[in-house]
């Protein structure tokens, strides 16, 4: 199914399961639909199964949004207790659409519990999820629910007394009764390397041949932290991540600044907060440290997962100043994590909301798109782990493997049959869509907007609304829309208070999401493009950036020596049309 077809089905108000391989554009479709709902004033709750995934969408975890939290079971007494909380009543009363991303990591038991609580708060027990439009998104080949048993070595039997069944959402009663329209995206917008794409598709089909594995093994090499200093590293275990980050920090010959976590309130709640918080209790930073934000602060300009580098420390407060990958400089003030009950804070912890980011776990990489990554799959312990890690990278030459275990490419056998069924249902949905006349589609979409309390006439969202309402791609989408309207890169940079280089970065992110950037007013002449292309070919062996790209300085120097006076902006813009 195409992205356009999926969007059309969503706009008709159907309950939907949006799926497809990594890089097919699931997040892009979700963001486009969320943007559509907000433009028509339809209230949408944006959630995901994990904190990391939720912040990729600019939302919150479904556990927190729903009020279910960490409960495995939901009794009638639990529901009555939750109904006493006014903020939950306000939340459910307001929502008309509920989006849940990374659905593969949710259990069927949780989805059934969510269905019950939605019906209770909506006071509608006849319709699935109380009448909310439910939009589930994810790839079942990716990391499974946390109830999943560990992946055992090939050929071994389940442990005695162990239940080997996975509590997938597709097996829940709520799933079966929700009449979900299956939207299986088949386009590919992340990988443009056919051989690599064939490997990823072979993993999904459980059809990895010796040829596929041999091709992957050409990317194996011994790990050297110094050689890979500026490349993102993905490991399956936290211990490896911590070790690499400590090593990288130690390599920086700058003074070390230490920030200690503080706390107050009930001891047991504080301990739980510390365990769930991604910020370390002792945070050590230096100039040049690679960091990742671990909390949302839309006003300050970052979300959980925003990456950057420490470029300075405030002269008065000593708080770190971080330059993000988008080029923004942010003075990072301490943030609070708290447990409260009806507005009363029972416990809280306070820390600078950063952690080191030279290395991260495969688990936390879900949703990322990387030009290059060092990946260790020698100790994969869950189905889908190898697929998730490899599919983060756009091309095979960006994959640097330092370990490939026997089970690294395994997928859950249950998912294979489920996936085939999903594809057939998606094909059937697209065929039915093609049979509908345009007037009937429009009527259905308008009826859904009216039913959801929205407005038929779309309005333009402001930059502030985009940031606060939490569309992941808000910055690049705003830039893209302004360029598309005919404005120059310099004019958009001035309007949004960014550098022209940042606007070009935004266009690059738009291109990665599948948007066309073939705008005549920003295109470089074929003659100039060919000259810059020759410079890149001449300097292809130069040191690379963290993203695996050739640095701009050698390109500019080469061009200058050959009599061409291109500025950095022109060279950076040329990258969009060359690669």
Q: What labels would you give this structure?
A:
579 residues; 16% strand; 5 domains; 20 strands; Rossmann fold; five-stranded antiparallel β-sheet
Description:
The chain is of the alpha/beta class. The protein has 5 domains: 3-142 and 166-190 and 436-451, P-loop containing nucleotide triphosphate hydrolases (Rossmann fold), CATH 3.40.50; 194-236 and 362-404, no CATH class; 238-359, no CATH class; 473-521; 523-578. Helix content is 39%, strand content 16%. It contains 22 helices and 20 strands. It has a 6-stranded parallel sheet with strand order 3-2-4-5-1-6. A hairpin with a 2-residue loop joins strand 15 (335-341) and strand 16. Helix 1 (3-11) runs parallel beside helix 2, helix 17 (474-484) crosses helix 19 and helix 20 packs across helix 21. It is globular. The chain starts with a helix and ends with a helix. 41% of the residues are buried. Mean pLDDT is 80; it is low at 148-164 and 467-474.
How do you describe this structure in short?
39% of the residues lie in helices and 16% in strands.
State the end-to-end distance: 26 Å
Secondary structure: helix percent: 25-40%
User: Per CATH, which architecture of the largest domain?
Assistant: 3-Layer(aba) Sandwich
Class inferred from helices and paired strands? alpha/beta
Tell me, rounded to a whole number, the average pLDDT: 80
Classified by CATH, the class of the largest domain is Alpha Beta
